[in-house]
Each structure stands twice: as C-alpha cells, then as structure tokens.
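agent> Task received from the user: take the single chain below, predict its 3D structure, and emit structure tokens. No templates, no multimer pairing.
agent> Plan: (1) validate residues, (2) run structure prediction, (3) serialize to tokens, (4) report one or two observations.
agent> Step 1 OK, no nonstandard residues flagged.
tool_call: predict_structure(input=
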Amino acid sequence: MLLNPEKQSARVETVSGVLSRTFRDDTHPAVSATSHVPYIKHTWLNDIVIQTKDGLMDASKDALKSTSGYFKDLCKSHPSMNRFMFTFVKQENLKSIVDYAHSGYVTISTENVFERYEAGRFFRVPYIEKVCIDFLTTLIHSSCKDSCWVRQGAQRRSMSEIYYRAKVYQDLHFESLVHDPTFLYTTKPQLIELIRSDDVKVSREEVVYEAVIRWTRKDPGTRKRHLPELIPFVRVPLISFDYFMRHIRDEQLVDDTISAPWKLLCEWVYIYHMSDVSIRADKVVLRTSYDLPKAICTVGGTHADRLNIVEAYDIESREWFDFGRRARPTMHRSAVAVYKKLLWVVGGFYVERKDGEPIATNNVDIFNPYTHIWYIGPPLRRARHSCCLAVVGENLYAIGGRCGPTVLESTEVAGQNEWSFFSDMKHARSLPSVAAACGKMYALGGLDHRDHLVPSAEVFDFENGIWSVWFNSQFRIQRGTRAAAIDGFLYVMTGVCTVQLWIFNVASERLGQSEAKPIIGTNYCIVAVDGFLYAMSSTLKNDQHCIMISRYNPKADAWSPWSETVTSKRPFALSLAAMDRVSKPVWRSNPDLPL
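)
tool_result: status=success, residues=595
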C-alpha cells in the first residue's frame, strides 16, 4: 500500500519504497558517459540564470536545449538571452527540470508527481512526462484509495490518459477494490465516482449496494446522512426483489433523518418491480463492462427453425453463439437495431391466412444482452415488415416497410412509452438501406409495391426537418444496395454479380470509389464496428451452405477474409446490429426465457 489512509499527509512526505522513486534516463548523455556515478553534472557550463518566484538558479543552456523542447525553441528565437524569468513556476518543479537536464536523473514522489508532470508537459520534457505516468500507473494498481486519489487528481488536471487508466482499472476490478481495506477510507466524491459508472463489472448489483452500506458503517455518525445522495447511484431496480424486501426495505441504518427519502426510494422500486415488464426497459441504465466482447447480432432469417433465435457473432473469437429464443410467435423480416444498449426487434410478418398473404405486425420486442431477458416494447403506430431501423443521436427511427400490398413511405420515432409518426419520405420503400452520419439520415434503394427496385436515394437533414432527393451521377442504386457510416463517411455497397464499394464524405459531399475488391458472396449485409466495416454474406463451398464474414479497413482501403461458417441451419438476416458489449450465456435451465 502506498498511502496510509489515516495518515496520508505524513506518509506522502516519507521517502520509502515505491512512495518516492528516482528514475534514470539511460539515453541521457550524462548518464551514458558516467552511469556509475549518480547525479554527476557531466561537463555542462552554467551560462544562464533562471528566476522563479522563489529565487534564482544557474543552468546550462546546452543542457536545457538538449532535453526540453520549450527551451530549445526559446533559445532559437532569442539566442543571446542569458536570463529567463518564470514567476508562475515553483522553484522546486523547475529545479527538477534543470537537475534532469544536467544529470539525467529525476525523483518522483506522491507529493510532487502531479506538479512534476505538469512542469514536464509545459517545458516539453518527454522523459519526465513518461516517468510520471509510469509512477501514477503503479499507484493505480496499488490499492483502492490510491487509485481513487490518482483518478481524482488526474480529473482535476485534465490528464485524460491517466484518468482513463484509473477508471478502466476500477471498473474492471470493482469487486476486489471494494473489499480492499483502504476502500473504507475513500471520500464521498471518490465513492460516487466508483459506483456511478455504467461500465462497472459486477456479478450482481447487490455488490454495489453492499459496498455503499459497508462504507457507511465505517463511520455511521458522519456518513449516514450521505445515504440519500449515494443510493441513487446504485441501480436498485436491478437488484432482485427478494433481496430488496429482505435487506433494503428495512435497512437498520435508516433513521428519522433520512426516512422520508428512503421511503420514496422503496416505493419507487416496489412500483418498478410490480409494474408490467413492457415499461421497464427504458427506466434503468444497465451496467456493462470493458472486457465483454463486441458482437454482431442478428435475429431471424430464412430458415424456419431459426426464425426466433437471437444469435451473436463474437468478433474477437470469431465464433457464433445463441442468446435464446424470442417469446413472440415466429416473425419474418423484422428490423434489428441496438438502442440504449438493448437489442430492438421491430415489426415483421407471419403467415396464417389460406392465401398465404403475409400479415404485418406492429410488435416491438426488446432483448437485454446482459441478462438475456426479453421485454415487450411499445408497439408501432403502423404495422409494418421489411422496414429498417436507424439510431440518430438519442432517437430510434423506423423507416419505410410494407403492410400487406401497401409499401410505406412513413417513418416513426420511438418515444419513452410510445412511437410517433415522423416526416414521410418522398418515395415509398420496403427493404431500404438506412445509415446516419453528421446529423443526416440516408435512405437508399428498396423495393416498390411490385417488388421492383426503387432506383433512388434520399436524405433527411435534421436541421431543415425535410427529406430531399440525394443524387450522384457517379453511381446508381442497384438491388442489394447496403450502407453503413463510419466517422462521417457513408460506405455504400452496390451490385449483385459485381459488387462495388463507394465512399461518400458527408461533410464535403465528395464521392469516391474504393480500389479494393470486396471479398463477398451473395445476399450480403454490412455493419460498422470499431471503425471497420464487416460484411456478412452467403456462399457455397463444396456444395455446402456457408456464412462468410469479411472485414474492410477504411484506413488501408483493404478487404480481408474474417471467417466462414458451414451450416445448414444458420439464419441469414436482412439486417445486422453491432452490440458494443454482450454477455455470453453460460447455462440456463430454460432456454426460452419467460417475459
């Protein structure tokens, strides 16, 4: 442990162990010449004077120029200057820069690490910046209180790299950190930073609640009054109802001073658990974790036995796995999207009539990829199948589709508890391809009521609030046109026999064609994940049906094969959705999870 929680200031001044460490730069000329003699001044000639608000010091211009980018530029612009004034810098921090410039050694401690880093960053001394980051990283992995101290200090000083390292470490090791003895000595702001994160990795939300209660019981007289501020950061509705009734409702720490807000909290949680599951999905933000895999999710497809199966493709392990079965009846041509960390399956059709005419539905099913539970979402205003979903900002849009013989130009936007009609497109489209970038939403291609190609595209500008025809003479819309957006660029794949990839810069409205030939089969779909474009298609290999996945790297303008899966039952969906993080099911007694 680096910091004694009860006597932190005293320990900070102590020089022992990793609390204070001296670093040696082996590439420094003074060290490489006389590495066996510490702190030797080499042969530098002190020819300048540096004044700080605390006093004067002598230094070598050549030594400073060789180690500091700031002094190098300053001496280049003022070659005859021999006196420098820095009244805004503490003398001890500037002295560390001068000592390193002369000797190649620098001493870092918990008392000065942040100030040394800021001095190294201002005077552009890369080595001092590096060793400060290394020292702080050691502190992050030392104890709970040390990591909280580093995270808080990095946040105050806008040290984004260190702050992110501390946050990721705390999120991934939350359960071990809260059982560290130093956890009980964290401050209230530090505790809030620990438990408020959406990315905390916990096996169950009860762990977070128990951590807050343990922290409070360390000093109940002082800390009990903070409970109304802390408990809202615990996702209490994610706690099992049985645990809530046995432990939280009758918590012994609750007295007259906090009974009123605690009673309101209990009433809200009770109503939440007793309410219809159809209104729960939007009420609580789920916790995820950095080490959960990213995946491409798909629902339905062409094989009758797999229409209700939710499947995901783990991009890292390159493996398929099943999530579970939809609770609703079999649906064809549902639209899929990831919205607010949940998988939304919208619309679709089923066949019941003797004439075989598909019956469109307005069903909306919401799947939690972390708990593997289905919810019934708010129904669409208009039943539709073969539509497409787009997430733009904080909103989810359903675009086009078909209802019986009618092809729809209408669009809908999801609200908290209901859908509402949005601006109609200029052309009715079923099975369109939709992508959004830079505040604009594009709808390309699709089919009309005779299943003929709609050879046009249109764009919705959210600033103007209208759809307009999007036309470019360099390429034409064809059957199977698919689109996805990455970093302000629209990637459009067109063609059936010969597939081409077009790249459209939304900001500059410039269009270009990729020189790389797509590695792809038939009936392809595309989705963007982490700056890469993944294309899923079907192909035949040795007379066996295969699902082929290939990846496009926009920076290198190159395609590469990613995986092939030989199967007779694997569905092929008309739309894909990229999940940021998913939890693989390990075992369940009932694969068909009830609502």
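agent> Step 4: summary for the user.
The mean pLDDT is 79.
agent> Done.
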